[in-house]
Specification:
The chain has 209 residues and is mainly β. 8% of the residues lie in helices and 25% in strands.
Length: 209
């Protein structure tokens, strides 16, 4: 874990090439530019609570990416340079472009954190996604694209209070083994709560009805 609060650019000599897991901390209102000379060939997991501009050549072995986005999410464009990312966490997401980029990867885990995202359509038909977390997306109404995810086993929905078709969609997610829908208020879950509990091995509907 590296505190980058006082940096604007990651110097080429700041970290050893043997690092495998890297986490950066920076004021979320700022962004960090990666030095072209800083190449960490063994890093498989990279997380930042700030916006970081880097290229695949900096982290060629990356499999897990967690990135704070700003504005239109342009820092997510680096995803297009990869072809084997298995876990991605992004947010806030304010349009579908970052989600469309994530959907090009052989994802197993995807975390969506806040923003003005209003559609999950880019995920339609994704074959390998097993675990999906959606947190604080106040503009999201439609969960229908989730019915086309054949491998989805775990679904976490937190503080998404504008969902309109949860009681229709959730019972149709036949591959689900773990469902958590918490702090979503009144989204119409009560009429199907018992059905979901009988169908899915683990369910939690805290502060949701």
């Amino acid at each position: 874990t590296f505190d980058a609060r006082f940096l604007k650019t990651m110097p080429a000599t700041i970290l050893p090439g043997s690092v495998r897991v890297l986490s950066l901390s920076l004021d979320k209102t700022r962004s960090l530019t990666w030095s072209r000379g800083l190449i960490l060939p063994r890093v498989e997991s990279f997380g930042a609570d700030c916006a970081v501009r880097f290229a695949r050549e900096n982290l060629p072995s990356l499999k897990h990416l967690s990135q704070h986005l700003v504005g239109d999410g342009k820092h997510a464009e680096v995803i297009a340079e990869y072809d084997a990312l298995e876990r991605i966490g992004l947010g806030p997401i304010n349009n579908t472009r970052p989600l469309a980029l994530a959907a090009t990867q052989p994802l197993k885990i995807l975390v969506i954190r806040g923003g003005k995202l209003d559609s999950l359509a880019p995920l339609t038909g994704h074959a390998t996604l097993e675990e999906l977390t959606i947190v604080g997306t106040a503009h999201l109404h439609d969960l229908e694209p989730l019915t086309s995810l054949p491998s989805l086993r775990k679904l976490y929905i937190h503080t998404c209070k504008q969902l309109r078709n949860a009681p229709d969609v959730l019972p149709r997610l036949r591959s689900l083994e773990h469902l958590v829908v918490v702090s979503c208020g009144d989204i119409g879950i009560d009429p199907v709560r018992e059905r979901l509990a009988a169908q899915i091995a683990y369910c939690d509907f805290g502060a949701t009805r």
